[in-house]
Amino acid sequence: MLPLLSVLAVSGCAASSNPNYFPVREQRFDLQADGTGNLTHVEIKTSDPLIVNGHSFDSLGGVDMRFTKDADYQMPETGTPNATMDYVMKPSLDGQWTGIRSIVSWQNPGYPTTTVLIEFNNRDHVSKMIIPPPGSPAGTYYGYGSDSYGGYTPDGFVPQHVQFPLVLWVAKISYSAVKTPFYEGVALSNEIRECAMPISLDDIDDPLKCSIETWSFAPNIGLVEVDTKWVPLPCAPYCPAGTQVPPLPPSLRRIN
After folding, report:
1. How far apart are CA 42 and CA 34, in angstroms?
2. What pTM, to 2 d.p., does this model score?
3. pLDDT tens per residue across span 2-22
4. Cα dist. 17→14, 21, 106, 172, 185 in Å?
5. Are 47 and 57 in contact (CB under 8 A)?
6. Cis, peptide link before residue 237, omega less than 30° from 0
7. Contact at 8 Å (CB) between 201 and 174?
8. What residue segments make up the domains of the chain, in order of their start?
9. Are the CB atoms for 161 and 171 separated by under 8 Å?
10. How far apart are CA 136 and CA 6, in angstroms?
């Protein structure tokens, strides 16, 4: 198992300047799926409390990115109908943006809506790092934390409890070109692996064991692209040998 170090190894160079990759302001925009044209809608807001399906949640002073979608087979929660995700991030003094909690909901036909609060219990400065401090060099960063789950299900309320006692967070930071209908140019990309421990580093690219997504942020604009390389399955991250990987969802690119 990796030692509990915030940064194990980095390589490469940082971008030539230190632009703001997540301007904090109220905004709404759409991400369009390659091939299908279906939309995922994004709303960034600082309201507190957050109201999700009639339930009230504390934003803990963070900024919420709310994702909703027009089609089942794209993020959030690829393959799950009527899914939404509120991803709450908070800045640190050095300018890093870190996830602190997430509220995920969905509704299967014929059943009440499920609304789950996921608490991120970050143990170091890298765990749930979405945007690194300005000037951070390109490279791979490793962090650890644990995740607690609880919320409202068709079977009733489930108290908050530790679901994954140790979670590995791998953030591969790069500064590379992206092309979307709204923005074309260099962006900060975070290729994320989120894996329940124990896991070998040889397995962190396995979409049955880890969630794998790349989020790209344009300077002074914000999120412009999401590339998802996994599909949540009921057996994950403990799927038996021979489990087939479902077709991957299309990439999403900002259009407005």
Report:
1. 17
2. 0.91
3. 322 333 333 334 444 688 999
4. 8, 11, 40, 19, 14
5. no
6. yes
7. no
8. 9-230+244-254
9. no
10. 13
